[in-house]
Automatic annotation (TrEMBL):
<comment type="similarity">
    <text>Belongs to the DapB family.</text>
</comment>
<dbReference type="InterPro" id="IPR023940">
    <property type="entry name" value="DHDPR_bac"/>
</dbReference>
<comment type="function">
    <text>Catalyzes the conversion of 4-hydroxy-tetrahydrodipicolinate (HTPA) to tetrahydrodipicolinate.</text>
</comment>
<feature type="binding site">
    <location>
        <begin position="168"/>
        <end position="169"/>
    </location>
    <ligand>
        <name>(S)-2,3,4,5-tetrahydrodipicolinate</name>
    </ligand>
</feature>
<dbReference type="InterPro" id="IPR036291">
    <property type="entry name" value="NAD(P)-bd_dom_sf"/>
</dbReference>
<keyword id="KW-0520">NAD</keyword>
<keyword id="KW-0560">Oxidoreductase</keyword>
<feature type="domain" description="Dihydrodipicolinate reductase C-terminal">
    <location>
        <begin position="131"/>
        <end position="267"/>
    </location>
</feature>
<keyword id="KW-0457">Lysine biosynthesis</keyword>
<keyword id="KW-0028">Amino-acid biosynthesis</keyword>
<comment type="pathway">
    <text>Amino-acid biosynthesis; L-lysine biosynthesis via DAP pathway; (S)-tetrahydrodipicolinate from L-aspartate: step 4/4.</text>
</comment>
<protein>
    <recommendedName>
        <fullName>4-hydroxy-tetrahydrodipicolinate reductase</fullName>
        <ecNumber>1.17.1.8</ecNumber>
    </recommendedName>
</protein>
<dbReference type="InterPro" id="IPR022664">
    <property type="entry name" value="DapB_N_CS"/>
</dbReference>
<dbReference type="InterPro" id="IPR022663">
    <property type="entry name" value="DapB_C"/>
</dbReference>
<keyword id="KW-0963">Cytoplasm</keyword>
<dbReference type="GO" id="GO:0008839">
    <property type="term" value="F:4-hydroxy-tetrahydrodipicolinate reductase"/>
</dbReference>
<feature type="active site" description="Proton donor">
    <location>
        <position position="162"/>
    </location>
</feature>
Length: 271
């Protein structure tokens, strides 16, 4: 029987890390080959299944990222921007597919991934769920169909432990709306309103971030004109939807040429 692709998970002890480990362990198309956490973390040296409070999975949590990634076919990474850049360098050196769900990356950090993508396949998305990527496509098309008489607002809600705002998904939707309008998001984004701000500038794309409780992820794209509103909405109630998308991306990336890809590529939704 052909061996299934081995997957290494970074940030093993984190919320998404644990979800990814569960999803990979339950898959019959992939297997868990490694789990990575920060040096000094109490999980390092333990079986990851035991550390998660379940049965042993036969994979020891390691702080040796290079060795762990080199032994995998793909690394799935939902960590922090600086860590992601480090893992990208390793993935490039070892030729391992790098699936990136990390959010909060600056434009410079995203640009820095380009050199790694010359050596391996990098699949990066602000959100890896099927529904959100369909929403992205719809947002682009609706924005292209409507002129600036329709104001665009992106409203997102997440749990109270999320550290970045707007969310990666909200920015992805903003980019889609800007592309539909044929403009640069950096020129039209309105990401903060407080006090006497004056009237809304025509053509701007606004962002609102809500943080509270255990909200997994909610995103609305509002097109508002005089007398009418159009609302495109996606609600996520289970973090597993992001993990399943990441696994799909890791499988899709096997054998792909070096380059930068996204979930639209994975799902075959490119125009």
């Amino acid at each position: 029987m052909t061996q299934t692709p081995g997957i290494a998970i970074t940030g093993a002890s984190g919320r998404m890390g644990q979800m990814l480990i569960r999803q990979v362990s339950e898959s019959d198309r992939l297997h868990l080959s490694g789990a990575i956490d920060q040096p000094g973390h109490p999980w390092v040296g333990q079986d990851v299944g035991t550390a998660m409070g379940g049965s042993a999975l036969g994979v020891i949590v390691s702080d040796a990222a290079r060795e762990t990634i080199a032994g995998a076919d793909a690394v799935i990474d939902f960590t922090a921007p600086e860590a992601t850049l480090h893992f990208a360098e390793i993935a490039a050196e070892t030729g391992v597919v790098h699936v990136i769900g990390t959010t909060g990356m600056s434009d410079d950090q995203i640009a820095a991934l380009g050199s790694a993508a010359q050596k391996t396949a990098i699949i990066r998305a602000g959100n890896m769920s099927l529904g959100v990527n369909l929403l992205t496509q719809l947002t682009r098309r609706v924005a292209a169909a409507l002129d600036e008489d329709f104001d665009i607002e992106i409203i997102e809600a997440h749990h109270n432990q999320k550290v970045d705002a707007p969310s990666g998904t909200a920015l992805m939707l903003g980019e889609a709306a800007a592309e539909g309008r044929g403009v640069s998001l950096s020129q039209v984004a309105d990401r903060g309103r407080d006090g006497i701000t004056g009237a809304r500038r025509r053509g701007d794309i606004g962002f609102t971030a809500i943080r509270g409780g255990d909200i997994v992820g909610e995103h609305d794209v509002l097109f508002a004109a005089a007398g009418e509103r159009i609302v495109l909405r996606h609600l996520a109630s289970d973090r597993a939807v992001f993990a399943r998308g990441a696994l799909k991306a890791a499988l899709w990336g096997q054998g792909k040429a070096p380059g930068e890809y996204d979930m639209i590529d994975v799902l075959g939704l490119k125009d």
